[in-house]
Amino acid sequence: MQNSRRDHIVSCLDIVWESMSGLCESFTEDQWKRATDCPGWSVQDQLSHITGSESRLAGNPTLDHTPPESPHVKNQIGASNEAHVDYRRSRPGSKVLKEFNNVTANRREMLKDVTEDDLAVETQNPTGSGTLADAMYIRIFDAWVHEQDIRRAVGTAGHFEGLVAEYSMNRMADVMPYVVGRRAS
């Protein structure tokens, strides 16, 4: 049973990171390079994106890397994501997985010290301003969605049940009226 918002966040991140790692651990280089539904991104690029995002949140130095222009990059967040992805493209997928595992292990250690008060602090996140908790819930959703991108590309369905899947599907249901409303206007 979850005792707090912090426990829920940490549990969800643990689950989705472990699921992604386990899914990817036996991939061949061919599987790493398969295209996904995200324009311009391979399976490896999906994991590179999550690795880069978590690395940035861990306080690691900002990359000094400018990727070539890509038609799928539409804004500053996309450019930042693409820098992390392109920076890792020339590496073997197994090396990206190793970095992902190291970065997420570091993030787990960091999250042990996060308090409920910390989670209430106002901060910027990809959807605008909100609390640190809001930003962490975006990380959970983002990781689960990209795990699903990877799964579709390699033909391995899964992780449709449980704490993370339930949270992510509820999040999609919550925002759908907003998305439909924006499209209709």
Fold and architecture overview:
The chain is mainly α and 185 residues long. Helix content is 65%, strand content 4%. The protein has a two-stranded antiparallel ribbon. A hairpin with a 2-residue loop joins strand 1 and strand 2. Helix 1 runs antiparallel to helix 5, helix 3 packs parallel to helix 5 and helix 7 crosses helix 8. It is globular and about 40 Å long. The N and C termini lie far apart (42 Å).
Helix vs. strand class: mainly alpha
* CATH superfamily (homologous) name: dinb family like domain
State the domain count.
1
> How large, in whole angstroms, is the Cα Rg?
16 Å
Biggest beta sheet summary: 2 strands, antiparallel
List keywords for this structure.
Four Helix Bundle (Hemerythrin (Met), subunit A), 185 residues, 2 strands, mainly alpha
How do the helices and strands line up, and which of them pair or pack?
Elements: H1 5-24, H2 29-32, H3 43-57, H4 76-88, H5 93-112, H6 116-119, E1 122-125, E2 128-131, H7 132-154, H8 163-184
Antiparallel strand pairs: 1-2
Summed up:
65% of the residues lie in helices and 4% in strands. By secondary structure, it is mainly alpha-helical. The protein has a single domain, classed as dinb family like domain (Four Helix Bundle (Hemerythrin (Met), subunit A), Up-down Bundle).
